[in-house]
Amino acid sequence: MMPDVETKLEGTTLVMRIPMRFQRRGGRKRIVAPDGSELAPISKPQPDGTLVNAASAAVAKAAR
Questions:
Q1: Does the predicted model carry a pTM greater than 0.90?
Q2: pLDDT, block means (10 residues), the chain with 64 residues
Q3: How many whole angstroms separate alpha carbon 18 and alpha carbon 37?
Q4: Domain count, the chain
């Protein structure tokens, strides 16, 4: 566990405080730890299937 993580029990609820900050990189938000390391790995962006289908339909309609 990270040394800055605080945990406490409030009744039946476990409360955890994890220090982090958000950075914007190229329009995407990244979660960054206080020491500058990334908390979540960067995943490759996935294409939006609905947008791809709409664009291809628009191109096909314009070609007619």
A1: no
A2: 77 87 77 75 78 92 86
A3: 14
A4: 1
